[in-house]
Amino acid sequence: MAFQLAIIGLGKIAQDQHLPVVAKNTDFELAAVVSSRDGYRDVPHFKTPAELFRSGLKLDAVSLCMPPEPRFAIARDALDTGLHVLMEKPPTPTVGELDAIAEHARRKSRILFTTWHSQYNKAVDEAQRLLKGKRVTRLHVSWKEDVRHWHPDQEWIWEPGGFGVFDPGINAFSIVTKILPQPIFVKSAMLEAPRNKATPIAAQITFKPSWDGTAELTADLDWRQTGEQSWNIDVETSDGLQLALRRGGTELYVGGRLSVSAPPEEYEDIYVHFAQLLREGRSHVDGAPLQLVSDCFMLGRRTEAEPFV
């Protein structure tokens, strides 16, 4: 029997990824959608999550695809209704809310899955394998893209809790926290925010290692890049290993030679993993990428950039 799933929030990410991927996955059946605007084909449509939860419709789980700010309350209500919850990234706007909803899921004996789609690439898995037990001496993240292309007319990203350039940047952080054999911490950050916006359009970050010894650990995030987009992570280790993840983690170069290249099937793998979690009765909650973003805002120095229009 397929798991009965409702998707809450029918914005760009749900339209581009969740809906088509769920349609292809035989472990799930799309039983309902929630959107304040239009519905989806002939699938039962509700205007609010509360309407869905009161409807009595038979469901097993919900996928939360709205912006992060309201997710805690919606996830809490879903868990209270007896449903399992998948949360699109970033799961919540704060670490405190993530910790609280994870504990609430545990008390309710429900599954909570915090998805970080960029982690679900074969090249990322191979980089993690190669770095196991190594001492990293250099890390550089260059994550630069065009906000007008990826977030057209989305004002929520510029509001407090909308993350700004850290909305894509957290994808890079999710890869970094997965592949590095030991944690890193934020040392300092420069946050460039347009005069007319609350969140940054660019950031330069310096990290410090949790391990003994020195390491050059940096990140450069920018939302103003036009033309070819840059989603690159470079890592070097004390024994001379050189890794380069390219194209958002879909390609891995080892010592300058292409080692892994696979088409992105991130969301396909997310739902494969979610079905496995549901069958096994266990949650998968990863707060490390969100913690790095939170620490960037905590330790960052804000500078003023040109207005964004």
Task: Please list the strands of the largest sheet in the order they lie side by side.
Answer: 14-13-12-11-7-10-9-8-15
* CATH third-tier fold name of the largest domain: Dihydrodipicolinate Reductase, domain 2
Mind telling me the CATH class of the largest domain?
A: Alpha Beta
The total strand number stands at: 15
Helix content: 25-40%
What CATH architecture of the largest domain would you give?
Answer: 2-Layer Sandwich
Largest sheet: 9 strands, mixed
In total, how many domains does the architecture comprise? Answer: 2
What gap, in angstroms, lies between the N and C termini? Answer: 49 Å
Return the average pLDDT rounded to an integer.
97
Give the uncertain stretches in residue-range form: none
**Computed CA radius of gyration, to the nearest angstrom:** 20 Å
Topology:
Layout: E1 3-8, H1 12-24, E2 28-34, E3 45-46, H2 49-54, E4 61-64, H3 71-80, E5 84-87, H4 95-108, E6 112-114, H5 122-131, E7 136-144, H6 147-150, H7 166-179, E8 184-194, E9 202-209, E10 216-222, E11 230-237, E12 242-246, E13 251-254, E14 257-261, H8 266-280, H9 288-299, E15 300-305
Parallel strand pairs: 1-2, 1-4, 2-3, 4-5, 5-6, 7-10, 8-15
Antiparallel strand pairs: 7-11, 8-9, 9-10, 11-12, 12-13, 13-14
Helix pairs in contact: 3-4, 7-9
What keywords describe this structure?
309 residues, alpha/beta, Rossmann fold, Dihydrodipicolinate Reductase, domain 2, nine-stranded mixed beta sheet, six-stranded parallel beta sheet, 9 helices, 15 strands
Description:
The chain is an alpha/beta fold. It folds into two domains: 112 residues, Rossmann fold; 158 residues, 2-Layer Sandwich (Dihydrodipicolinate Reductase, domain 2), CATH 3.30.360. 32% of the residues lie in helices and 29% in strands. The protein contains nine helices and 15 strands. A nine-stranded mixed β-sheet has the order 14-13-12-11-7-10-9-8-15. Helix 7 packs across helix 9. The longest helix has 15 residues. It starts with a strand and ends with a strand. 42% of the residues are buried.
